[in-house]
Amino acid sequence: VNRALALSALGRHAEALKVAAASEQMEGSILEATPMNLAGLAEVRRLAGERDLAVRDAREAVAVLERLRENSIPFDRLKAGFDEGFSWVHGRLVRLLAETGHEVEALEASVRARARAFADLLASRELGAAAASRELRSVGRPSQLLAPVATAAAIANQARQLKSTVLSYWIDEDGLMIWVVTPNGLAAHPTVKVTTHQ
């Protein structure tokens, strides 16, 4: 996967796709690497223009990551943030959904990713860990600690109650994505290309 990503970065997309296809035939020996590998394959396919396959891989990467989170009972893993690198996994899905015309789903994926990051932050604090420990004894799963993640409709409802507009942002290496949610729903989704040279 790393080789395929390197070839993509060099603009050698046909070669990158061949290496990506070969990597799919190999089973990873480290389970925690699987979401990163799937997200890497999604990025290779995104850069090569194979958007449908890229979205499929990105969705699967996030699904695998969520399964890992649900089954990670020891809270020392959560205290460590479950691996901060996994924000990149969520980011690939957000970026791909936004680029393929699924703006509402991209917004919801970004909200979900932030909720997960916030849960990890809480779990890394003494108060969060103590509450998590109590909850774990009662329900058996750390993932039960999270409140339901807001949908685009719920965000619009909140905007309606506040008589306001909600702006949501996602920043990655390709730039800035903005969602403008009014009481009537998603009104705009501009993106801004941001590079390290600006």
Q: Overview of this structure, please?
A:
With 198 residues, this protein is α+β, with helices and mostly antiparallel strands. It has nine helices and four strands, in the order H-H-H-H-H-H-H-H-H-E-E-E-E. Strands 1, 2, 3 and 4 form a four-stranded antiparallel beta sheet that branches. Helix 1 runs parallel beside helix 3 and helix 6 packs antiparallel against helix 7. The longest helix is centred in the first third of the chain and has 21 residues. About 10% of the residues have low confidence.
Low-confidence stretches: 73-79, 135-146
Roughly what fraction of the amino acids lie in strands?
5-15%
Return Rg in Å: 18 Å
Order of helices and strands: HHHHHHHHHEEEE
Principal-axis shape = globular
Major sheet characteristics:
4 strands, antiparallel
Number of helices: 9
Taking the alpha carbons of the first and last residues, their distance comes to 30 Å
Secondary structure tally: strands: 4
Mean pLDDT: 79
Relative helix content:
55-70%
Give the helix/strand class: alpha+beta
Describe the secondary structure blueprint for this structure.
Layout: H1 2-9, H2 13-24, H3 33-47, H4 51-71, H5 75-79, H6 86-99, H7 103-123, H8 126-139, H9 152-162, E1 166-172, E2 175-182, E3 185-188, E4 191-192
Antiparallel strand pairs: 1-2, 2-3, 2-4
Helix pairs in contact: 1-2, 1-3, 2-3, 3-4, 3-6, 4-6, 6-7, 7-8
